From TrEMBL:
Lineage, opening ranks: Bacteria, Bacillati, Bacillota, Bacilli, Bacillales
Organism expressing this protein natively: Alicyclobacillus ferrooxydans
Classification via InterPro entries: YabA
Keyword Coiled coil: yes
Gene Ontology MF term list: metal ion binding
Name the record gives this protein: Initiation-control protein
GO biological process entries: DNA replication; negative regulation of DNA replication
Top-rank taxon: Bacteria
């Protein structure tokens, strides 16, 4: 058995493990950031839901302005997905509601 080549293989493996370890650390950091971001968005959604509950939905232009603002901030205001984040861009249900 070629000892030299075994040492080279082990050294290469050590190097790859080192790189993977660094990559793992980066991924852990990203997951942590995503969890925090998710938590922040959940709280924001909760806050907006609570605020939206008090809105005079079908009354006056102020209610419509508020709904428009909530929609612009990235949330659904349609009764299909009310209060959830608009992850897919524009929503035809929301838009038809705003332009009623
Ligand atoms: Zn919608």
């Amino acid at each position: 058995m070629d000892k030299q080549s075994l040492f080279v293989q082990v050294a290469n493996m050590e190097e790859r493990i080192g790189e993977l370890y660094v990559e793992l650390g980066t991924l852990k950091q990203k997951i942590q950031e995503l969890i925090e971001e998710n938590q922040r968005l959940e709280q924001e959604t909760e806050r907006l839901r609570a605020a939206a509950k008090d809105l005079p939905l079908a009354q006056g232009s102020e209610g419509l302005d508020n709904l428009n603002r909530i929609y612009q901030e990235g949330f659904h205001i349609c009764n299909v997905k009310y209060g959830s984040l608009r992850t897919e861009g524009e929503c035809l249900f929301c838009l038809s509601f705003l332009h009623k």
